[in-house]
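Notebook, p. 212. Picked up where the previous page left off. The plan for this session was modest: take the two constructs that came back from the sequencing core last week, fold each one, and keep the raw output in the notebook itself so nobody has to go hunting through shared drives later. Recording the first one now, exactly as returned: residue sequence, then the structure token string.
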Amino acid sequence: MQVAVFKLSKAGGLIESGYLALAAEALGQGSWEAELRDAGSNLGKNPKAFLDAVSALKTACAGGDAAEAKKTFITAARSLETFANDTKTADNLKFL
């Protein structure tokens, strides 16, 4: 879960700086999405809403649409916060 927070935070900084392609790349690196899906299964909650939002965020960033990237970033951040609260892991996370 902490990796998801880190990835989203890093992508947000890149989006804010105008580096949309790098944000998409940062979100796509590693196996963190599968690991989050597995963690969700272990915690009894599905992170589908968050992962769908991340997918939309990657698409917006890869397409170079800054306005859409900012909008979907907010959606992804809210979805991650909801997932963290639902799994009672929010208190253990930094930067959420």
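Okay, moving on. Second construct, recorded in the same format:
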Amino acid sequence: MSFGIFSYTVTVFIFTGLALLLYLAMRLYVSPKNSMLSKTDWKVILYTILITVIATGPGEYVALAWRTWTYNPERTFHTTLLGAEVETYLFTILVSLVVSIATLLYAR
């Protein structure tokens, strides 16, 4: 099955979306009391996302310039923002969100 230019975006949504659905299911059905995040926790999550998004541009630019990896223009929107593909920022935001939530919940 080929999604064309949406292939990378669909992959990001599938893997991070499943993790977010698992969190929501845990919050709603399994243990609502233990899965609540405070305002302080959400601030930590927001700062984590902000730091990773800021670091993504330069890191991605260096990796692409050194040809560490490349993107297939047939599988992405082929739109760069500050040296990185737009899908990479989406990936960074969603993965940072999922990992931060999991870390804060499992740290309890």
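Notes on construct two before I forget. The first strand starts at residue 80 and ends at 81.
Flagging for discussion at group meeting.
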